[in-house]
Amino acid sequence: MKSFYYGEDTTQDELFKLIEELNKRDDIHGILLQSPVPEHLDIYEAFKTIDYRKDVDGFSPVNIGRLTLNRQTFISCTAHGIIKLLKEYNIELSGANVVILGRSNIVGKPLAQCLLNEDSTVTICHSKTRNIEKITKNADILISAVGKPKFVTKDMVKENAVVIDVGINRIEGKLVGDVDFENVREITSHITPVPGGVRTNDSCNANL
């Protein structure tokens, strides 16, 4: 694996030049642009510049379109990991009522499309959603990626639901998720912990 480090004063042209060079190199098979980038850089234009055949994050417009059309493509790491996790534990996705908390381009949106491709019925909730508790209470599978510690409480979860916690939050040096794990686990059929779950060590490893 080759890494390229640039400072906060990197220009858009310098970033694009590096990406174009990597696009052309036969010894480079995948390109991952670490985010966030400095505010003066346009990360979406950078994603467009990456050759979609090397876009291992699945963030280029081409790969996003291919995912929407349910074609073979690179898929956002966390979203893909969650689907693999659910399948590994034989969680039925076809026809399942799935509620996703969070609409980020990295997790929420690609995950919703992945689940639609698996024939799930998908609802995305976000900061403007009204009556979130009523919506989450009907979820067969509840996935939280909002970045708010212990946001999901026991009264928001249906009995025997599957709960996937994607949250990574730090409170007084301790890593916690979006879900009030100790209380919610009492009523779920499956639940992922934080740490040690979907994003173990901030990666894409998954355990249930």
Task: Explain how this protein is built.
There is one protein chain. α4 packs across α5. The protein contains seven helices and seven strands, in the order ααααβαβαββββαβ. The chain starts with 11 loop residues before the first helix and ends in a 17-residue tail after the last strand. The chain has two domains: 12-68, Leucine Dehydrogenase, chain A, domain 1 (Rossmann fold, 3-Layer(aba) Sandwich), CATH 3.40.50; 77-202, Rossmann fold (3-Layer(aba) Sandwich). Mean pLDDT is 93; it is low at 200-208. It has a five-stranded parallel sheet. 28% of the residues lie in helices and 12% in strands. It has 208 residues and is an alpha/beta fold.
Topology:
Blueprint: H1 12-24, H2 43-49, H3 61-68, H4 77-88, E1 97-101, H5 108-117, E2 121-125, H6 132-136, E3 141-144, E4 162-165, E5 169-171, E6 174-176, H7 181-184, E7 190-191
Parallel strand pairs: 1-2, 1-3, 3-4, 4-7
Antiparallel strand pairs: 5-6
Summarize the entry for a quick read:
With 208 residues, the protein is α/β, with parallel strands linked by helices. Helices cover 28% and strands 12% of the residues.
Low-confidence stretches: 200-208
- Count of alpha/pi helices: 7
| Average pLDDT taken over every residue | 93
Shape: globular
Main sheet: strands, sense, barrel = 5 strands, parallel
Radius of gyration: 18 Å
What's the CATH H-level superfamily name of the largest domain?
NAD(P)-binding Rossmann-like Domain
Cα distance spanning the termini: 29 Å
Write down the CATH topology of the largest domain.
Answer: Rossmann fold
Q: What percentage of the residues does DSSP assign to strands (E)?
A: 5-15%
Based on helices, strands and strand pairing, what is the structural class?
alpha/beta
Number of strands: 7
Determine and state the CATH class of the largest domain.
Alpha Beta
Strand order of the largest sheet: 2-1-3-4-7
H/E series: HHHHEHEHEEEEHE
